[in-house]
Design a protein that fits this description.
The structure holds two protein chains of two kinds. By secondary structure, chain A is of the alpha+beta class. Helix content of chain A is 26%, strand content 32%. Chain A is built from two helices and six strands; from the N terminus they run H-E-H-E-E-E-E-E. The chains are: A alpha+beta, B alpha/beta. At the A-B interface, helix 1, strand 1, strand 5 and strand 6 of A face strand 1, helix 1, helix 5 and helix 6 of B.
Chain lengths: 114, 275
């Protein structure tokens, strides 16, 4: 359950941005999560109210965008979507692929009330 | 990891930087601030500083991860014996409830720093930082960080180390890499442990475990080791020495080794941090 640690880190970054922008409250927090980041969006959402209690982000909406897993083949150059434990090239079936999307864990943007 | 040079830009979010793609004022009238910062920004910042401490002293730091009971401490005991008189080792222990593992290491006359965190499921860079400052890094060649026995949470936290090593004991399933892809995808080396037990097990096939690791597009070397009968220990020691040489060569060129923690989709690179 490391999602609570991740949430605490998110809140601390959000509050820093809010302070820099002299915001009164935080309206929305948008995240981007890839399945290979090791972070479960549903667990983040469950931990979020605990992490933001008593802060100006207390009533913020948490929006999570799930990004697809995509790989590029280093043998034939093909690009395809892949499953979390099967990152193979769909064209030539080789495992020598490079992940081009799917391991992100990003704080994308914040909407503030001033 | 940094937030100003664009190394967080991925195929998934690059549209935001294209004309018309960037949000500024929303329909509801709120002000939107684009951040594009890693969710573990503070941890990664601390990790970078930890790595600088290691690099300044030419110390290679290795994060040892596995499920509980796969033999991390036994492998470390065998490693310490094999390196005696040749390389200086210290261990940072993430055994959170007892001092048992640290005591086993200290019995080998090697410094072991216990990280006390109660019931945390992983180590993070801040915890590692306290331990780093308790070590005399200038006298060391390798620091092993024995992470909490857990195949999920430790995979996401950069501690400031250089390499991830994941152990898989043959008494576990050979499908563990398929079940825990984040951990096994990010490993620089896989060590199959307790291989002396293989003759007694009909359901663990090394080649299945290897196929499951390749399915994660991971080209890592896979070693077969028994700390009990010393099988594979010399290959493990050779790998460690190669990595020490590689790390020192990189340091001489002003670079370092970075562990694979969520680092592909996000285009990570080593560069000067001025904050």
């Amino acid at each position: 359950m490391h999602e609570l640690s991740v949430c605490q880190s998110i809140i601390s970054q959000v509050l820093e941005v809010a302070k820099q922008n002299k915001a009164k409250s935080v309206f929305k927090i948008s995240l981007q999560i890839g399945p290979l980041s090791g972070v479960e969006a549903s667990l983040l959402e469950a931990a979020f109210p605990i992490a933001c209690a008593g802060t100006i982000a207390e009533n913020a909406k948490l929006e999570t965008e799930l990004l697809p897993i995509k790989v590029r083949c280093q043998i034939c150059g093909n690009e395809n979507e892949a499953k979390i434990n099967h990152l193979l090239c769909s064209a030539c079936n080789s495992w020598q692929t490079e992940l081009i999307s799917g391991d992100e864990m990003l704080l994308r943007s914040i909407e503030l009330d001033k | 990891m940094c937030d100003t040079c664009g190394c967080n830009i991925t195929d998934g979010n690059k549209d935001m930087l294209e004309p018309g793609g960037k949000l500024e004022k929303t329909e509801s009238g709120h002000e939107s601030i684009e951040v594009l910062q890693n969710l573990l920004h503070e941890n990664n910042h601390q990790a970078t500083h930890n790595r600088e401490h290691f690099d300044k002293n030419q110390v290679l730091a290795i994060n040892l991860m596995s499920s509980p009971g796969s033999g991390k401490t036994s492998l470390l005991e065998a490693t310490i014996d094999a390196l005696k008189g040749e390389l200086s080792v210290a261990v940072i222990e993430g055994d959170l409830e007892t001092e048992n593992d640290a005591q086993r290491i200290r019995d080998k006359k090697v410094p072991a720093i216990q990280i006390q965190t109660g019931s945390a499921c992983h180590l993070d860079a801040h915890m590692a930082h306290h331990a780093v400052h308790e070590l005399n890094l200038e006298n060391l060649d390798i620091v092993f960080i024995e992470n909490v026995g857990n195949l999920v949470c430790p995979a996401s936290f950069d501690l400031g180390h250089h390499l991830n090593v994941t152990l898989l004991s043959v008494t576990e399933g050979d499908d563990k890499p398929a079940k825990y892809p984040v951990m096994f995808r990010g490993s620089n080396l896989h060590v199959m442990t307790k291989v002396d037990l293989l003759p007694y097990l009909d359901d663990f096939k090394i080649e299945n475990a290897e196929q499951n690791i390749r399915n994660l597009a991971n080209p890592s070397l896979i070693l077969k080791v028994s700390a009990k009968n010393q099988q594979g220990i010399s290959e493990w020691i050779d790998w460690l020495k190669q990595q020490i040489n590689l790390h020192r060569q990189l340091l001489a060129q002003g670079q370092t080794l970075l562990p694979k923690m969520q680092s592909d989709g996000t285009k990570l690179h080593a560069h000067e941090h001025n904050h």
